Automatic annotation (TrEMBL):
Role: Catalyzes the condensation of isopentenyl diphosphate (IPP) with allylic pyrophosphates generating different type of terpenoids.
Gene source species: Thalassospira profundimaris
UniProt remark on cofactor binding: Binds 2 magnesium ions per subunit.
Cross-referenced InterPro entries: UPP_synth-like, UPP_synth-like_CS, UPP_synth-like_sf
Annotated positions binding Mg(2+): 25, 212
Cofactor(s) needed: Mg(2+)
Keywords: Magnesium, Metal-binding, Transferase
Protein name in the entry: Isoprenyl transferase
């Protein structure tokens, strides 16, 4: 992958959401439609990840969050989980240098204790190496579940209360946010789910309180820049009220 071409055209007057989150769904169906094993769909899904990161940089998106593997996905057959781990390993090894060269700052959210040691080390390295970058904040949700994330935050806060660091009455929305894995990342403005399913599947439950949702009928391996631009155009036409009267 080459150096990503820079920025939107001067004529591009789109209102680009600051933070786009994507539930990348439909790899299995994409493969089944071709009479291929599910793993081929996951492999093609990695190409779509690459395309989407590149398009996000080009469109001037500041934060991109990708749902790669859920807490619940560990329930899949061992062979599929192992294929997905292999692809994750390969992606991290092959893409890190390019992502770094392109100024992408990587952050991983989710329970990484469940990953093999070498994958954990690759995840740590990706975060460390890219920590000073500023062009695109790429967050990858791996072994992530929003309920698990919230439960973790509750435990952290309960510990602080028990230790007398804060009082129960001082627990605010800000305190909860500070104990989520997404601390420091603005809430998503736009959430896209591919594959036609219209559900959130335990992704960013707290953070998506006022996010705009777009459900696209495309299967994730077919997702490209045109789909992203279409979603952004759709987003630009929405009126966000945040509960107020405009
Ligand atoms: C998304 O595609 C990838 C992961 C959840 C890891 P799926 O594997 O869920 O594909 P479908 O939904 O079965 O088509
Ligand atoms: C959501 O997709 C998780 C990811 C895309 C990583 P799933 O395919 O796991 O969701 P369900 O099972 O259809 O709700
Ligand atoms: Mg799915």
């Amino acid at each position: 992958m080459a150096v990503f071409s820079s920025q939107t055209q001067p004529s591009d007057t789109r209102t680009v959401p600051r933070h786009v989150a994507i539930i990348m769904d439909g790899n299995g169906r994409w493969a089944r439609g071709r009479g291929r094993p599910r793993t081929m769909g996951h492999r093609a899904g990695v190409d779509a990840v690459r395309r989407t990161i590149e398009a996000s940089v080009a469109l001037g998106i500041e934060y991109l969050t990708l749902y790669g593997f859920s807490t619940e996905n560990w329930k899949r057959p061992e062979s599929e989980v192992s294929d997905l781990m292999g692809l994750l390993r390969l992606f991290l090894k092959r893409e890190l240098a390019t992502l770094h060269k392109n100024g992408i700052k990587i952050r991983i959210i989710g329970d990484r204790s469940r990953f093999a040691d070498d994958i954990r080390a690759l995840l740590d390295k990706a975060e460390e190496q890219t920590s000073g970058n500023t062009r695109l904040n790429l967050t990858i949700a791996l072994s992530y579940g929003a309920r698990a994330e919230i439960a973790h935050a509750m435990r952290e806060i309960a510990r602080k209360v028990a230790a007398g660091e804060i009082s129960a009455d001082a627990i605010t929305e800000d305190i909860i946010e500070q104990n989520l894995s997404t601390v420091g990342i603005p809430d998503p403005d736009l959430l896209i789910r591919t594959s036609g399913e219209q559900r959130i599947s335990n992704f960013l439950l707290w953070q998506s309180a006022y996010t705009e949702f777009i459900f696209e009928d495309v299967l994730w391996p077919d997702f490209d820049r045109a789909h992203l631009e279409k979603a952004i155009d759709n987003f630009a036409g929405r009126e966000r009220r945040f509960g107020a009267v405009i």
